[in-house]
């Protein structure tokens, strides 16, 4: 492959990863600030913003993330690998669409307000939402732990591993806190809602995903700089 073409491809990957990272970093912040200013309060979870005037921001950002993930092919499957980058990012992208278009049940008394809720009912649509969210975070964690860290240099490998395990921990925390928020009553339910634990667990998981993808983008750009400095040397596979 000509050097210019390879460099253009790497820059394209860098832009995709940077866009993914920035979208992830900005989503919780935008919704929290947006909730404080026009709404006067913060919703107990990121998904609950679907049922507010900030729905467009939530759905639009999740759709943008979904499209970026689906369009990102990643590296070819190495010998011995059973799951390719493209398969994992496509699954994550489809799950992101599910998070966007299958709303959660919303506050008590909320009427059906989406096509999914009208077609499936509030409870089944919410099941689709939570299932999609678990698949989304699982795929992202797998990318960090099994894909990004595979050939990374030690410092970046630690970032990918930390991000991946953080996503795993936050996914379990989200499941537990969501169960308390939806199904329980009493002090535990009030604690989860009052301190907005679901919101913060979701935000930390998304930020961890964002940091990993921004780091990956910087790694790719370091390859471009290496190629420019040593035009006749093959770039190191370590990222």
From TrEMBL:
Q: Which UniProt keywords apply?
A: Membrane, Transmembrane, Transmembrane helix
Taxonomically, which superkingdom? Bacteria
Q: Which residues cross the membrane?
A: 20-37, 57-74, 86-104, 124-146, 158-180, 192-215
Which protein are we looking at? Answer: DUF998 domain-containing protein
Query: Which residue windows are coiled coil?
Result: none
Origin organism is Marivivens donghaensis
């Amino acid at each position: 492959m000509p050097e210019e073409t390879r460099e253009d491809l790497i820059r394209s990957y860098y832009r995709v990863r940077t866009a993914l990272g920035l979208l992830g970093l900005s989503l919780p912040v935008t919704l929290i600030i947006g909730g404080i200013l026009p709404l006067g309060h913060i919703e107990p979870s990121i998904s609950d913003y679907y049922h507010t005037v900030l729905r467009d921001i939530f759905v639009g950002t999740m759709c943008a993330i979904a499209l970026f993930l689906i369009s990102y092919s990643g590296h070819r499957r190495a010998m011995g690998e059973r799951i390719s980058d493209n398969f994992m990012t496509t699954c994550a992208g489809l799950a992101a669409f599910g998070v966007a278009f299958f709303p959660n049940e919303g506050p008590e008394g909320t009427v059906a307000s989406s096509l999914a809720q009208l077609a499936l009912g509030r409870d089944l649509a919410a099941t689709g939402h939570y299932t999609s969210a678990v698949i989304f975070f699982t795929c992202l964690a797998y990318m960090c732990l099994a894909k990004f860290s595979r050939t990374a240099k030690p410092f970046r490998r630690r970032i990918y591993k930390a991000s991946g395990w953080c996503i795993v921990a936050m996914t379990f925390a989200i499941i537990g806190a969501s169960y308390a928020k939806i199904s329980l009553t009493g002090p535990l339910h009030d604690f989860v809602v009052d301190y907005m634990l679901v919101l913060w667990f979701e935000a930390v998981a998304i930020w961890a995903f964002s940091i990993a993808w921004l780091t990956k983008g910087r790694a790719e750009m370091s390859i471009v700089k290496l190629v420019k400095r040593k035009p006749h040397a093959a770039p190191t596979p370590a990222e």
